[in-house]
Design a protein that fits this description.
Blueprint (H helix, E strand, L loop, with lengths): L11 H39 L6 H37 L4 H18 L1 H15 L11 H35 L6 H51 L3
Helix pairs in contact: 1-2, 2-3, 2-4, 2-5, 4-5, 4-6, 5-6
Length: about 240
């Protein structure tokens, strides 16, 4: 496509909408495909267990780690798609000044970092609450299991902080831009964004607490199986 400046700037909104649909569709599909690739071993492992197949201990250790890391993968994929999309929109439109390019790219990167909170919390909750327990069997626990659980426990604090920072950012934007915004609809949009971000934080807080409770139980189960395994190894033949 030729630069927007040679096509008349007033058509910028139209071309932005066209490219937004295209970029969002491609980004969404790429993100889903990448996540499926990362999650496939876990889904195959669950299918094997459901069919009564015996999974080797080494494979169980790998599956437990991969299961706990799926939330981190989902967050990184989401953030990367937002960051990559940042330069694509203005380059395709071609009607922005250099300062606008920088502002547009930085704003999308920031949004991607904040939005990554929810994929992490949702996927991690599903894994700790539903999928991970299926891979815990006597004799298969390892020291790495406790380390990975501890890492996930520390990550959730960071993502909760980002979820809490989003409403504050929207509120700050409302206070800074409110007096200078001439459009009534822009003011309403800022208000709606604030309400949605607060509701999102409440949901994130619930997931945060649910993950915390799951990790406590999973650590207890890991220690219990580890103790049994140590006792069995200590018995004379």
């Amino acid at each position: 496509m030729r630069p927007m400046a040679s096509r008349e700037v007033e058509h910028a909104e139209h071309y932005f909408q066209v490219w937004a649909v295209l970029v969002n569709s491609i980004g969404f599909l790429v993100g889903i495909a990448l996540f499926i690739i990362f999650a496939r071993p876990v889904s195959h492992g669950l299918a094997d267990l459901a069919e009564g197949r015996v999974i080797p201990q080494g494979s169980l250790i790998f599956l437990r780690r991969r299961c706990l890391l799926l939330g981190q993968y989902a967050a990184l994929i989401s953030a990367c798609i937002w960051i990559v999309a940042g330069p694509i929109y203005p380059l395709m439109i071609g009607a922005l000044e250099f300062y606008d390019y920088v502002y547009f790219i930085a704003s999308l990167a920031m949004c991607g970092i904040f939005v990554a909170t929810y994929p992490f919390l949702v996927v991690t909750w599903l894994c700790t609450h539903v999928f991970y327990p299926a891979f815990i069997t006597p004799g298969s626990v390892a020291a790495d299991d406790m380390a990975t659980l501890t890492h996930v426990d520390s990550w959730r604090w960071r993502y909760l902080a980002m979820a809490g920072a989003l409403p504050m950012l929207v509120l700050a934007l409302g206070l800074i831009l409110g007096p200078s915004v001439g459009s009534r609809w822009a003011t309403i949009l800022l208000g709606e964004g604030g309400v949605v971000s607060v509701a999102g934080f409440v949901f994130a807080l619930w997931l945060f607490q649910a993950i915390q409770a799951d990790i406590v139980l999973l650590k207890e189960a890991t220690l219990a199986y580890g103790t049994k395994l140590d006792n069995q190894e200590a018995k004379p033949e």
